[in-house]
Design brief:
The structure holds two protein chains of two kinds.
Chain A: H1 23-27, H2 29-34, H3 41-49, H4 58-63, H5 70-73, H6 80-91, H7 95-109, E1 120-123, H8 126-129, H9 132-142, H10 154-164, H11 170-181, E2 185-188, H12 191-200, E3 205-208, H13 209-214, H14 217-221, E4 227-230, H15 233-238, H16 240-254, E5 257-258, H17 274-277, H18 286-293, E6 300-303, H19 306-315, E7 320-322
Helix pairs in contact in A: 7-10, 7-11
Chain B: H1 7-17, H2 25-31, H3 57-66, H4 75-79, E1 95-98, H5 102-115, E2 119-122, E3 138-141, E4 148-152, E5 157-161, H6 166-174, E6 178-180, H7 191-195, H8 204-207, E7 214-220, E8 226-230, H9 235-241, E9 250-260, E10 265-271, H10 274-286, E11 292-299, E12 302-309, H11 312-321, H12 331-344, H13 349-365, E13 372-373, E14 376-377, H14 380-391, E15 401-405, H15 406-423, E16 427-435, H16 441-444, E17 456-464, H17 473-490, H18 505-509, H19 511-524
Helix pairs in contact in B: 3-5, 10-15, 15-17
Classes of the chains: A alpha/beta, B alpha+beta.
Bound molecules: flavin-adenine dinucleotide (FAD) and iron/sulfur cluster (SF4) (2 copies).
One iron/sulfur cluster binds at residues 27-30, 41, 64-70, 80-81 of chain A.
Chain lengths: 336, 536
């Protein structure tokens, strides 16, 4: 009898279970940009159910932005991102990827990093690394006046490997995780890495940078009703059930608008496929960014992610600020 | 017209005929997944139509490329459309064209007429009888035309491309504080696909079906003409395209009525009798006592009448004038009623357990905090559609339905319910009224609106819960036939009468009406290329 119940706790399922309901297509930025069903999960899952190979799905796999918007809406609880990443692993071949793998193998041989001096660590993403002033501000804000350690570079390689479908040498991964296991709390800027860390370290307290900053009272005080708050999609979707409530509390308390659609999915402001993310081709996400802004009655845009800040600045006439910039303390964040 | 079958006597006759067959109906279905009685004596189309033989494809493909139309012939593009939501009809097109604009579709249809290549139009592909599956030829994917063209918040209209999903339309309208009037409770139904078949919402008892919300259309005829039509401009074409199952043209743009957005105040009443619940729902509809109403059953003895309102005033008027007339219980009252029922029938405890589990799973889904604010439901279609796919969705969906006049509805539902009970351990019925517009009578001919309905038509979907079970296609087919036979018997109609069920069309509408429409179709579509085998 219980066999008739499909519940949310069923194990993650694979492409063979796709009903073709297309709820994921509605939230998929690739579909919005291309209107090409074959580049979306129902398109390539249905085709795979009827005998197409991984190679036939290559375009779809490469075009996926890994925003993970599709996962929380899937009624069949299909591990869509996991399938796409696995297909990327099967299809990945470019020579430069061998370089990345060699670097990770070489790092794996090195001595493990020494124990961190604090119980909390921030793992910045590439964009935050490229903005040392903002990174310093984030560290000051979250890390109690500078005592907050920032991770070494191995997280960047691991993020890149996850994105591109490059196998991470087990020893390198374990070396990295060993360091993290000693921590009480890990704050992660890259949502894809966050998703994986939650799987690798199920007991650890791991949150996204957006959640960490938006939970800070001084930052929250900086929000106002005429703001459009742009949630970074990857981190949000990787812990959707919990974060949907977090942001709803923020909405109730501060009245700002969010880049959430009617299914409460975060609409990505960028839509970058793998070559674009790797800098091999030019991004073309203006259409997607304009959709986030369409019909909004706002005065300012607040972002969690620097990638989104850049494109929003390009497309809109509103001021765009990073969450960490909401607290103006002349170099020292107000503590409450 | 053929006579309906008394299914009860057929079972015993079947069992008397051969000693090889087992002694009980359930043992029979284990033994052979064909219903014991439903395939006897009635001519029906039960299979996919034959695949088009491909003659002239290469010339046609060259002609399309000559006009600059992108034709995708790779397996990844074609395989994406191998089936529809029903998952019982399978077919592959020779090629796929993503709709981009009316001129492109016009060129496509002109070439298709010339080379006699079938064109199957697909929106969300939510058909369940294979109507949107291409058995060869071209599949025209309308979702490529998904732009909202103009929102007029003063005139309360929207002009949109025809392939857009209702949900995508809602996303855009909401940014301006607007909403559509009525649409399927399914996020991925497209506007064009819905205007051709109906579109029933829980506000249809008050606002009618989606097809009644269309003010004007841009249509590309099967011969490739691009024509604007409405009730005042090219009215004949408008009347045929609305509720026309895609036979008379491709809907490329639509002007629809819209309204200001309001969240819902939702109430649930529980009944242990289907008949009483239907009577109460009809009472509400006749008296315009609610803005939304519909019935969802959990079991025969657990029936939910949902009633909802757009404003505090309407809700207060309902409470003052109508609530006391309803014979349903609130949640605690119904729980007590069920406790009494099962205390007196302890051998039915597994049924009680099922009911309890179902409630535990289902109820929170309709109250998810993401979609509720201050006790109001903000996105009814999101809530219902997600629940439908989560609890009823699977790779195969078999949803036969019956549509009748108000007077015949209880009878139709009770008979359909008995059929469900015979075929499946668990199933859900979804019943809703559809307010009719007398001035739209010409739109309704040969459609899901039953010919004898006045004021309201009523529809009931019969939705087995397939879960992990495996049933043969013949088993599903015999179930559907048993439901559809009730419609023939009662002189009703169906929401899903095309595709594999096209064998029913002459039986329900009669030769005179069908032949008249067939003559119009032949005149409009000389090579009979557009949505071939759906109706004719
Ligand atoms: C789980 C589920 C729940 C449903 N719930 C409801 C509900 O609550 N209410 C309701 O009314 N219906 C419901 N339906 C039925 C479904 O919503 C309707 O069949 C729907 O309106 C079809 O829209 P579509 O875009 O999927 O059309 P499709 O299935 O793609 O096409 C339907 C027909 O129209 C033709 N067509 C498609 N687009 C065009 C166009 N632009 N121009 C001309 N012809 C076209 C196709 O060839 C086909 O014959 C449900 C179906 C499912 C599977
Ligand atoms: S991860 Fe994002 S881009 Fe990729 S399929 Fe899902 S919704 Fe589309
Ligand atoms: S939401 Fe899930 S089941 Fe539905 S089409 Fe997407 S992957 Fe398939």
């Amino acid at each position: 009898m219980l066999g008739y119940f499909k519940n949310a706790f069923t194990p993650r399922r694979d492409h063979a279970d796709c009903s073709g309901c297309s709820l994921c297509l509605l939230v998929c930025p690739v579909w919005r940009q291309s209107r090409d069903v074959s580049l979306t999960p129902p398109g390539h899952f249905k085709a795979m159910q009827h005998g197409t190979s991984a190679a036939d799905a290559a375009a779809s796999v490469e075009n996926c932005t890994l925003c993970m918007a599709c996962e929380p809406v899937c009624p069949e609880n299909i591990d869509i991102t996991g399938i796409i990443l696995e297909l990327r692993r099967q299809l990945a071949a470019p020579a430069w990827m061998h370089g990345l793998q060699a670097r990770m193998t070489e790092m794996a041989g090195r001595k493990a990093a020494s124990a961190p001096s604090s119980s909390t660590m921030l793992l910045p993403d590439q964009a935050l690394h490229a903005h040392p002033d903002l990174l310093a501000r984030v560290v000051r804000l979250l890390g109690n006046n500078g005592t907050f350690p920032v991770s070494d570079d191995s997280s960047l390689d691991i993020s890149l490997a996850l994105e591109a479908g490059v196998a991470i040498p087990e020893q390198h991964l374990q070396r990295f995780l060993k360091l993290l296991r000693r921590l009480k709390k890990i704050i992660v800027a890259d949502g894809l890495l966050l998703r994986h860390l939650k799987q690798w370290l199920p007991k650890a307290d791991i949150i996204g940078l957006g959640e960490a900053l938006s939970g800070h009272p001084a930052v929250r005080r900086g929000l106002c009703t005429t703001d459009l708050y742009v949630i970074e999609p990857r981190a949000y979707h990787s812990d959707y059930q919990r974060l949907v409530k977090h942001y709803d509390r923020l909405r109730v308390a501060h009245g700002c608008a969010f880049n959430l659609d009617l299914q409460r999915i975060a609409i990505p402001a960028t839509a970058r496929n793998l070559p674009q993310r790797l800098g091999l081709t030019m991004p073309n996400d203006e259409g997607q960014t304009r959709w986030v802004l369409h019909g909004r009655n706002i005065n300012r845009i607040v972002v969690e992610s620097l990638e989104e800040r850049a494109v929003l600045e390009k497309v809109s006439n509103f001021p765009v600020v990073h969450l960490a910039e909401l607290v103006d303390d002349g170099g020292h964040a107000q503590q409450t | 017209m053929e006579k309906s079958i008394d299914t009860g006597t057929m079972i015993s006759e079947t069992f008397q005929r051969t000693s090889l067959e087992p002694a009980t109906p359930s043992a029979y279905s284990d033994f052979c997944h064909v219903g014991p009685d439903a395939l006897v004596g009635i001519k029906r189309q039960q299979t996919n139509p034959p695949r088009w033989d491909g003659q002239g494809w290469q010339e046609f493909a060259a002609a399309l490329r000559g006009c600059g139309i992108e034709l995708r012939e790779n397996i990844a593009a074609r395989g994406a459309f191998a089936t529809d939501a029903g998952g019982t009809a399978y077919g592959l097109p020779h090629g796929v064209v993503i709709a981009r604009n009316a001129v492109q579709i016009s060129s496509l249809l002109k070439a298709a007429q010339q080379h006699r290549v079938p064109v199957t139009v697909r929106g969300g592909g939510l058909t369940t009888e294979g109507e949107s599956v291409a058995f060869g030829g071209v599949l025209l994917d309308m979702t490529g035309m998904s732009r909202v063209l103009h929102i007029d918040t003063d005139a309360l209209t929207v002009r949109t491309e025809g392939g857009i999903f209702w949900h995508s339309l809602a996303e855009e309208l909401r940014r301006f504080g607007m909403d559509y009037l009525s649409a399927p409770l399914n996020l991925t139904a497209s506007v064009g696909g819905t205007l051709g078949v109906g579109g029933i919402d829980v506000n249809s008892p008050r606002l009618g079906c989606s097809a009644d919300q269309a003010l004007a259309l841009q249509v590309v005829t099967p011969a490739g003409e691009i024509i604007e039509c409405s009730d005042t401009q090219n009215a004949d074409l408008f009347q045929r395209v609305i509720l026309g199952y895609g036979q008379f043209g491709v809907i490329t743009e639509a002007t629809l009525k819209i309204r200001r957005y309001t969240p819902l105040r939702m109430h649930y009443f529980y009944y242990d009798s289907l008949r009483t619940a239907i009577e109460d729902m009809q009472l509400l509809n006749r008296n315009d006592a609610s803005d939304y109403s519909g019935i969802l059953t959990i079991m025969d003895c657990a029936v939910n009448l949902l009633v909802a309102f757009d404003s505090d005033e309407r809700e207060a008027a309902f409470r003052a004038n109508w609530q006391s007339h309803l014979r349903g219980y609130g949640e605690p009252g119904f729980a007590l009623c069920m406790v009494r029922r099962y205390v007196l029938r302890p051998w039915k405890l597994p049924e009680a357990w099922y009911l309890y589990q179902r409630k535990r799973e289902l109820f929170p889904e309709f109250r998810r905090s993401e979609y509720m604010r201050d006790g109001l439901m903000h996105d009814r279609t999101v809530v219902f559609s997600r629940a439908v796919w989560k609890f009823w969705g699977s790779k195969q969906m078999v949803i036969p339905d019956l549509a009748t006049s108000a007077e015949k509805f209880v009878d139709a539902v009770e008979r359909g319910n008995a059929v469900c009970r015979k075929y499946f351990p668990h199933y859900t019925l979804y019943c809703v009224g559809i307010k009719l517009r007398p001035e739209h009578k010409p739109h309704y001919e040969m459609s899901c609106i039953p010919p004898d309905a006045e004021g309201w038509a009523y529809g009931c979907e019969f939705e087995p819960m397939i879960g992990g079970q495996v049933y043969s296609r013949d088993y599903f087919q015999s179930f559907k036939n048993a439901i559809y036979d009730i419609g023939v018997d009662l002189g009703g109609s169906y929401y899903r009468f095309g595709g594999m069920m096209k064998g029913y069309i002459r039986r329900v509408f009669g030769d005179e009406v069908v032949d008249r429409h067939l003559a119009m179709k032949r005149a409009a579509d000389p090579a009979m290329i557009l949505n071939r085998d759906v109706i004719f």
